[in-house]
User: Fold this.
Amino acid sequence: MTTLDMTFVRARFPAFAVPGLADKAFFENAGGSYACAPVIDRLTRFYRERKVQPYAPYAAATAGGAEMDEARARLAAYMGIGTHELSFGPSTTANTYVLAQAFRRALLPGEAVVVTDQDHEANSGPWRRLGEEGVEIREWKIDPATGHLDPERLKPLMADGRVRLVCFPHCSNVVAEINPVAEIVALAHAAGAVTCVDGVSYAPHGLPDVAALGTDIYLFSAYKVFGPHQGIMAIREGLGMHLPNQGHWFNGETLYKRFTPAGPDHAQIAASAGIADYFDALHDHHFGAETDARKRGVKVHDLMRAQEVAVCQPLLDYLSDRNDLRLIGPADAARRAPTVAVDLGRAAEPVSVALAARGINCWAGDFYAVRPLTAMQVDLTRGVLRLSMVHYTSAEDVARLIAELDEVL
Assistant:
């Protein structure tokens, strides 16, 4: 089995050579990962050489437009979708809000939307607000002891055939258990509903094969996937062209413009091609050349996940062995993203401050996951300590974290 070359990986993230960061262990990746060098280089080049209105008939504008198109095409290919089925927006929260406005106009009286109490508020609040417009909102509840989202609990919510949309996370940003997306999508489709999956907390751990998952909508944030601050949305063509256009009326026939009400951030879209540059470099270094981007994506995904599972498990074992705290989510690293939230039974913020003083950069709070934490009876005034990793997190980082936790807990 191929293992991740950490020297190769870290050399592609300038942050690891920056004074003040290089000597720290970074465990706040779920809040936003470090940017990889290709993204930084592309963003710098765009502002230096191409900061003009793209697509005009002169060299700088043509190059800028081509790079924006490249980002869309290459990321879509990694995810197994058509280039026109991928669009950018200022954030996943904004993208979800725009989608909710489209569904508000498309849903008929008596139709319902299912949401969960496992989500970050971005994939919950915009949909719940449709209830103010007369749409019936049905809540798919987690197990309050474990945070688990059981597909069996979804079935009765859809039994009357009136549900048209099911919104749920690929994994929660505090529970972190990886939900069986393809299974849930199949259940929803069989009941006549479409699906919207919040992938913000999953995509940093390997871009998903959206076509294989079968979901109608998939959302994630580029700034948590080693890129710039943009929201990325994949939407199936049939659904996207059926929903009311939310962009300029004269762009209504272009799918990737239908859910972009304002002018896009040209530079950040262009820089997002650097994410694909990095994934290509990872693939070629570890596996050699491969022309099929979807196959490259699967291998890179599995490579990253294997590293994360290996480094996360010792931390889960350590936390599980303590009787003075509550580990949120599964204790098996293979079942979860490496985003580890801990209820300390006391205020978590001072612990994150103490860890920062010891060279461990992490944070504490509710992380906009107020609904799942409330459902699990976590005191929001105390919050949780969150320790989040990605593939560039080393075993040495985790060992250092555990040693410092022994001192501050």
